[in-house]
Specification:
By secondary structure, the chain is α/β, with parallel strands linked by helices. It has helices at 37-48, 53-56, 84-89, 119-123, 140-143, 155-161, 167-178, 196-208, 222-232, 242-253, 295-307, and strands at residues 69-71, 79-81, 101-107, 127-130, 149-151, 184-186, 214-216, 254-260, 312-314. It starts with 36 loop residues before the first helix and ends in a 5-residue tail after the last strand. The chain binds cytidine-5'-triphosphate.
Amino acid sequence: RAEVVINGSSSPAVVDRSNESMKHTIQPASSTWRHNQTLSLRIRKQILKFLDAEKDISVLKGTLKPGDIIHYIFDRDSTMNVSQNLYELLPRTSPLKNKHFRTCAIVGNSGVLLNSGCGPEIDTHSFVIRCNLAPVQEYARDVGIKTDLVTMNPSVIQRAFEDLVNATWREKLLQRLHSLNGSILWIPAFMARGGKERVEWVNELILKHRVNVRTAYPSLRLLHAVRGYWLTNKVHIKRPTTGLLMYTLATRFCNQIYLYGFWPFPLDQNQNPVKYHYYDSLKYGYTSQASPHTMPLEFKALKSLHEQGALKLTVGQCD
Ligand code: CTP
């Protein structure tokens, strides 16, 4: 029985930033990639030993009550209280209960999406996952519009919405939330201290303006479980990125998984510059030692899974 080889070598990849992108040539989207159903099912089974996306996608109402104290996952000495608003927004049942989709798109935020023309293809997938409330309207041709689940790290409120300093920014965020129109809004509220107020502001806006979103707050064990799965497969990540978390969750409810906008390198395959995000001027944080992520290492693992047919990575133009 063939093993799943996720990381080609048994030692952690050494990141050579000078020509990292050169090492990651991926055949154009239209080439011979074939989905490997057997392997996808085997990966689903293996991941289920560590976590169950149906349960871990969100803490449910029955398991917490207002006033409960939670220790942050990455800052165990810091705590937060479960507020009345947070409690109200906890789902009663898993938003993924009994859900199965033929194909899913996970859209990362790399600038490699610009001029890709991938929007229409992305929108054909049965379930589309996006990260960190990334804008879609102005970039529809390259990233599509359909959104079934979108993540929101609390830091996004600072980075993209100026910490809601005035009415204009509050309105901007409100518009973005309204545009979600019934999708799942996935907020990692219990990960790291520092985001408490931001999560509270968003919760308040949603309740006050009766925004039509299905909120989800990942379980306390999710991050360690995901990390555990990848470490067991010799992918020595520090803290999984949102993109990797989404792939790991998606294996549970998606038959075929297509990744777009995953490219943590400053040059594309033709050595042209690539923006870190398709929509802002943020710089490459992954090169910093202080970054909690190991994106190029994650990419290497995803590329290996692409080559084995367990997922499909698109890093150039769509047909
Ligand atoms: N990503 C990528 N290459 C980039 C930028 C992002 O592969 N140049 C992927 C990563 O998997 C990332 C996801 O797209 O998690 C979403 O991007 P972003 O919003 O930038 O996530 P980060 O804030 O960088 O990381 P995280 O939210 O996981 O802390």
